[in-house]
Amino acid sequence: MPAERQVRMDVATGGFLTRSGGLSGHKAVGTLYLVMAVLAGLIGGGLALPLRIGPDASAAWGRMAIDHGALMVLFCALPALVGGFGSWFVPLLLGAPDMAFRRLNLACWAGVAASFGLVVAGVSTAGAMMLWCAAMLGLAINIVATALNMRGRGVGLGAMPLFVWAQVLTAMMMVIVLPVLAAALTRGLLAGAGTDVVARALRAFSGPEAGLLLLPAAGVICQLVETFSGVALRLRGAALGAMVVLSVGGASVWVHDLFAIGLAAQPAARPLAEQAVMALPMLVLLAAWGRTLMAGRPVFRVPMLWAVAFMAMLIAAPVQTLAGGGADAHALVLPAALFAAFGGFYYWIGKMAGGAYPEWAGRLHVALAVGGSVVGLLPGGVLAGVAMQGLSMVAFVAVLAVALLGRHRVTGNYWGAGARTLEWTLPSPAPRDSFAGFMVGGAGA
């Protein structure tokens, strides 16, 4: 592994686009995904209050519910975890200079951004979803091609960090499920079903959606646990196997959310089996993370606090399943994925922007977001929970502004000895053409 001083230093260190290799560079595209995710989260979060306060059967409320779900899952959580962190850090963790198809990467972001604009404008939700499927499918192919063909010297498949494996398995899952979702939307549009087909398709998509959210989130948590425990991940083989099972099994759970409202002609054991497909791999991952924390000396900085919150949500999900059914447990998946996304943001923001965040403000953000999620689940706690989550977003925007201003600069490896992956050998912010001198073609590595 090259030391920080060995990385090419004859690179531009000017503005963001210069450092990122132009608008089609993987760092610039990853940042565009993250910006869109923040905007979608703010808009979707704003829709949460009227939805939580007064559900009714009106068409306007139903449209608002569809838009809220689409914004939070399809344009906030998934673009942040896969498009944002995937585009930014899959090449860096592999020692690659960029994604395999850099122009395709920018084109895919443009497709997702266009579909986001269509949903916000209320023009054509079904058409927007079809465009989203095509763009995310292109991103998935790009991630797999990058992992298979762009690995640097000495980075074999077995040596890839679990974060990269999680991205690859998520991409493979997308290749399986997104054409099915697009076909369902196309059939509904041709039949003139309109908004109804979007609602039915998204309800059926809730099973694969859970896997698509949990897989990249688990990859981020693996990075955090290794770094802040100070030791390599224990039970790595079991954790990777669990991710494979979650990827393959999650792609087959298509109607999970419909069991709560009754699904005709289904075996009684099927809901339990499909829940087990999702739950058992996460239990294995929890065991790996727990054993790693016990083997090391964990330091609970802000990213690690988000990881603990993510684990708590995973533990709470089976309890919710036993107490209130699968739909309640499914509602915990999105907050858990967002917790992992925030953990990744605090972990990598210095590498992306070069500036440090204020620790106290990050801890306040964690407390408000986690507290709001918990309070919102309590009887009579909806308003208080939504208010706390709104305040948490204010804290997040303030933290983001401070980090981007960069008054307190960070070093190349500001997390210390626990951060062992390749991105920590680079200066902060990561320069243009990172690892260009070490690229040898990963197919034979």
TrEMBL record:
Gene Ontology molecular function, alphabetical: cytochrome-c oxidase activity; heme binding
GO CC field: membrane
Keywords in alphabetical order: Electron transport, Membrane, Respiratory chain, Transmembrane, Transmembrane helix, Transport
Keyword DNA repair: no
Domain spans labelled Cytochrome oxidase subunit I profile: 26-379
Transmembrane regions: 28-49, 69-94, 106-123, 129-150, 162-185, 205-225, 237-255, 275-293, 305-323, 329-349, 361-380, 386-405
GO biological process terms, semicolon-separated: aerobic respiration; electron transport coupled proton transport; respiratory electron transport chain
Source organism, top-level taxon: Bacteria
PROSITE patterns per the UniProt record, alphabetical: COX1
Listed InterPro entries: Cyt_c_oxase-like_su1_dom (IPR023616), Cyt_c_oxase-like_su1_sf (IPR036927), Cyt_C_Oxase_1 (IPR000883)
Pfam families assigned to the protein according to its UniProt record, in alphabetical order: COX1 (PF00115)
Entry keyword annotation includes Ubl conjugation: no
UniProt xrefs under PANTHER family: CYTOCHROME C OXIDASE SUBUNIT 1 (PTHR10422:SF18)
Name of the protein described by the UniProt record: Cytochrome-c oxidase
